[in-house]
C-alpha cells in the first residue's frame, strides 16, 4: 500500500447515497487522504473533476444514455472527458466505468440481461499484470444491466461469460471497473432495499443474495483493498 501523502485530495462523485466508496473509503482513510463527496444531479461537478488529485466516479441505477431524463449527465460527461483528456487519475465503478467509456468515445448500451450477484471475473493477460491481479480467484459484486464497447486505445483487463468488457485501463491513470470491488458486504441490506424493484423485476432470490454476501464479502475485503492500493502506487502523479 502506498505511503500516506497529505496532499492527495479525493473527489468521489456519488449518484446514489448508499453506493459510496465502501471498502475503498477505508483505504483512503488509512492513507490520510481527505475525501470529499459530490452529489451528481445536485452539485456542480466541473470544479471537483478539474481540480481533485484523484476522482472516483461511483455507481448508480441510471443509464449513461438517459440524458433526456437526467440532463446533468451531459455536464458530468463533459467534465469527465476533459479530465481524462488531461490524463488526471480517475477511477470509475459500475455507472462510473460506463461514464468513462462514454467520455472516451465508446458506446454504452443496455446489455439485454442483468448481471447481479457475486462471482469472479476472468482476467486477461494485461489484467493479470495489473492491480486486478488481487482479484484472481476472488468474488466481486456484479450489479448492472448496461454494458459498453471498449474505448479506442483502452486495454481490456477482465471479462465474464455474460459481458466481455468488465474492466479496462487507459494508460496508467484511468481505470474503469464494471463490477463492485469496493462493496462492503456488511452493508448489503442497503442495496437489497434500495434496489428492491430491480431485484424483483430480475427475479433475484434476495435471501440467497444476502447469504452469499456474507460468505463472499470477507474474501473481497482484502482483495479490494489490495487492488486499490496497488493501483495508487502505479499512478503517474
Structure overview:
Strands 2-1-3-4-10-9-8-6 form an 8-stranded mixed β-sheet, with helices on both faces. It has 237 residues and is an alpha/beta fold. The protein is globular and about 45 Å long. The two termini are 16 Å apart. The chain has 8 helices and 10 strands. The chain has helices at 23-31, 46-51, 72-85, 95-103, 125-128, 188-194, 196-202, 206-234; strands at 10-14, 35-39, 54-57, 90-93, 108-119, 122-123, 140-148, 155-159, 167-170, 174-177. The chain has one domain: Rossmann fold (3-Layer(aba) Sandwich). Strand 3, helix 3 (72-85) and strand 4 form a beta-alpha-beta unit. Helix 1 (23-31) packs parallel to helix 8 and helix 3 (72-85) packs across helix 4 (95-103).
Brief write-up:
This protein is an alpha/beta fold and 237 residues long. Helix content is 36%, strand content 23%.
Strand content: 15-25%
Described by strand count, sense and barrel closure, the largest sheet is: 8 strands, mixed
Q: How many domain units?
A: 1
CATH superfamily: Class I glutamine amidotransferase (GATase) domain
Lateral strand order in the biggest sheet: 2-1-3-4-10-9-8-6
Q: How would you describe this structure in keywords?
A:
single chain; 237 residues; alpha/beta; Rossmann fold; 8-stranded mixed β-sheet; two-stranded antiparallel ribbon; 10 strands
Amino acid at each position: 500500500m502506498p505511503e500516506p501523502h497529505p496532499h492527495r485530495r479525493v473527489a468521489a462523485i456519488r449518484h446514489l447515497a448508499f453506493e459510496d466508496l465502501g471498502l475503498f473509503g477505508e483505504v483512503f482513510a488509512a492513507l490520510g487522504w481527505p475525501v470529499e463527496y459530490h452529489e451528481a444531479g445536485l452539485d456542480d461537478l466541473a470544479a471537483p473533476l478539474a481540480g481533485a488529485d484523484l476522482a472516483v466516479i461511483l455507481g448508480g441505477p441510471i443509464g449513461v444514455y438517459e440524458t433526456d431524463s437526467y440532463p446533468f449527465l451531459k455536464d458530468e460527461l463533459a467534465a469527465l472527458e476533459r479530465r481524462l483528456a488531461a490524463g488526471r487519475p480517475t477511477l470509475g465503478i459500475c455507472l462510473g466505468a460506463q461514464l468513462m467509456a462514454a467520455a472516451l468515445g465508446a458506446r454504452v448500451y443496455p446489455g439485454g440481461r442483468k448481471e447481479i450477484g457475486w462471482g469472479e471475473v476472468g482476467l486477461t493477460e494485461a489484467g493479470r499484470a495489473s492491480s486486478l491481479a488481487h482479484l484472481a480467484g476472488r468474488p466481486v459484486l456484479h450489479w448492472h444491466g448496461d454494458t459498453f464497447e471498449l474505448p479506442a486505445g483502452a486495454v481490456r483487463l477482465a471479462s465474464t461469460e455474460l459481458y466481455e468488457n468488465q474492466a479496462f485501463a487507459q494508460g496508467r491513470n484511468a481505470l474503469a471497473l464494471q463490477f463492485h470491488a469496493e462493496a462492503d458486504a456488511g452493508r448489503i441490506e442497503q442495496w437489497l432495499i434500495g434496489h428492491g424493484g430491480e431485484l424483483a423485476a430480475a427475479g433475484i432470490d434476495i435471501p440467497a443474495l444476502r447469504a452469499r454476501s456474507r460468505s463472499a464479502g470477507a474474501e473481497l475485503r482484502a482483495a479490494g483493498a489490495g487492488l486499490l492500493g496497488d493501483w495508487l502506487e502505479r499512478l503517474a502523479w
